[in-house]
Amino acid sequence: MNRKASPQYFDGHKFITISDLPVDQSSMFSKWIRTDSFIPNRINGEKLIKYEDYEHWFELHYTTEKNLDQLL
Q1: Lower Cβ count inside 10 Å, N or C end of the chain?
Q2: Mean pLDDT of residues grouped by 10 in the chain (72 residues)?
């Protein structure tokens, strides 16, 4: 599934949590993101991630890998 997750907003900042992502993205993104990229705040015990980091990963890594899989 190539669905891009929508951001949440807090204090004018866009963010996501890993649980916001579809299952395949959640697994792949968790392996890619550095632990120091998490935002110190938490919502419901979950670490927040800048939406820009997710967008970067989605556009440059996830969609590229999915497109390669379709070619093979």
Answers
A1: C
A2: 84 89 91 88 83 94 72 56
Q: How many beta carbons lie within 10 A of that of residue 62, not counting itself?
A: 19
The pTM of the full predicted model, rounded to 2 decimals, is 0.80
Tokens 């395949």 found at: 24
Residue in the block written with tokens 């990963």: 57
Quick one: which of 33, 31, 35, 39 has its CA closest to 8? 39
- Enumerate long-range contacts of 7-14, CB under 8 Å, 24 or more apart: 7/51, 8/43, 10/41, 10/43, 10/48, 13/39, 13/50, 14/50, 14/51, 14/52
